[in-house]
Structures are given as structure tokens and as C-alpha cells.
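Render this sequence as a predicted structure.
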Amino acid sequence: MAKQDYYELLGISRGASDDDIKKAYRAAVKKYHPDSNPGDTAAEAKFKEINEAYTVLSDGDKRAKYDQFGHAAQDAGFGSGGFGNFGGFGGFTDFADIINEFGGFGRGKRSRRGPAPGNDVEISLQVSFEDSIFGAERELEFTIRDACDGCSGTGAKKGTAAEGCRACNGAGQVRQTIQTPLGYMETSSMCRTCRGAGKVIKEPCPSCHGHGKSNKKKKIAVSVPKGIDNGQSIKYRGQGEAGDIGAPKGDLYVRVLVAPNAKYARRGNDLYTEKEISFVQAALGGEIAMDTPYGQEAYKLAAATQPNSKITLKGKGVPHINSPNRVGDMVVVLKLVVPRSLSETQKELLRQFAAEGGEDLGEGKKGLFKKSKK
């Protein structure tokens, strides 16, 4: 079968610079490295071709001869080592850096051995705004992959057992030796016969079909801590999916979703709200009742309070989740409310108030506009 053009292998043009060649090679190595493609013989072959292509194109003399003679230059034996044995690997200084990303030279990066731990699981819990402040106890039901009751998680039919894999001698991995520009490298990949388990099930469990796991409904008591915010999670170690036999379970994460509140807005550990006050309260001041999540709070309003003024009630916000004794504040924006209807007595009193302050309401016979025009 004809060899593929080296430039096409790296996905570059014939006029590519040294930096372009190096970047293309890095990307190709990461994509086709055997440790990234365990058991994939096609990727392994591609990896060898890419190394060969880079060995030539990264060397000025070899590249010039390849541009002139193509693959025939290899047969001509140009260079100290030709193409075939990757000798004279000149011009390349960072191949080891690339290999290090996959575990280094020599023995190569080992794929994970032994039984696989269980996956982590995330479920959601809806709570009220008040529950997020004061905490709560909830029971949550969910479905999870757990060890099969029919085989106790072995995957083998009751009364039988899995046998050692002959393809890998029970190791769960198969070692391979590949040739690289810097010599030979030994890698380990997952055994495709037993999928890394090291054992083969001859008679699968009829309940789980040999998987060793099945869906189960479970319940868990969730303690919602004081001060938890929307989107934060509570971790329960070892409450996730079951792992392989001999491996730990994954973890369970309960993601808390806090229902919005029409009265309060949360920013960090502080609460923000609004309070309506009348013109008389704003002008004369006095005691007003403030609503907080902890109940009503009496507040002494100062005279001549201006609209949209802000007051702060210390310790009436949200507790810090890690320090419940530390509580945020509540910021209240005062909104002035103008009555929509007035009695004649109230109107007359307001006219007297305006007159006392020298304010012309423009209610004369000619009106303010006609007076100003005259």
C-alpha cells in the first residue's frame, strides 16, 4: 500500500514553517498516542507514521531531499540514519515534553488498573427561601445504579464465578512496544477481551445480565444547612453509584435549588427589600414596623427622611454557611407613597402647609400660567 504524503499526514502545506510543523506534530501526537487510544491498532499505526513524517520534515537536509525525491529518498539512504530507523533525530528538542504528557518514556503511561470506582451522582432538591436561611431536614428519594442483589455485584450467575482472562493472564492490560524517534517505548492498554477486569464471566447473572449493577430506589435524609445559596451542593461521601467489586462507591451531590422570594433579594449574605412610608412619616419621623425573615422589627425613623433613603438592620440577613453565628444584614430602601385620594379637610391642611412655606399652588382664578404670562 502506498505511503501517505508526510505533509498530508501532519495536515500542513509544503511551505509550512518549522513552527507550523512542530505545532501540527504536537496536535497529532496527542490525538493518536496509544495511551489516548488503548487497543486501537489503527491509531497506533497512525502514530508511527506521524513520528516518521516529523523525523523527516523537522530536519532541513532530509526535508529538502524528501521534497525532491519523495519517499524514494528513503531507499537512497540519504542522511546518517535514513528514515527507517529514525536515526539522527536532528532539530527536535521537545519530543520528550510531548511524551511526558502521556506518562514519559521507558515503560510508558499505565492505564488505570484494578476495579473501577463508582460514578458520582448529582440530584436536585427544591427548598423554600425560608429553609435556605433557617435550615431544614428533608427526605429525598432517587434512583441509582447499585450492586445487583441477584449476584451481589459480581455479574456472575448465582453459584458460579468469573474466570481469569486468558488474553491478559488476569492482568487486565496488554503491553505493547512501539518504535518512536527516540527509540522504543513500551505502553500498556486495556485488555479488550475482559475490558480491564482481568476476569471473564461465562454465565452472566440473569438479573443484571452480567453488569453487576442494577437500578434501585433509595432514600436519603438531607440536612439543609443554614445560609445555603441557590445552586450550592451538599456532598455525601460514598453514597453514589456502586463501583466494581473491591472498589469504593462514588459520591452523592445534592444540588439545592432555592425558590425566589417576592419580598427579599439576596446578595451574598445580605438581604435587600423595600418599605413604603407616608409623607407624614417621612416629614415628622417616628417609629415604624419593619418586616424581616425573623419577624417584625421596630425602627425609629428620623424626621425629614428623604425618598429612597437606605437603612441597615444589622444581623437580619442570611447566616454564613460555614459560620452560622455570623449573619448578614438587611438593607431597606424607603419608598415614599403619595395618597391617591384626599378629603377636603386634608386638602385644606395641605394648602395651609404650602402657604406657610410660601409655595404657590397655582389654584387662583387666573391660574399660575396666566399670572406668569402677565
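Summary. The longest strand covers residues 136-147. The longest helix spans residues 41-57.
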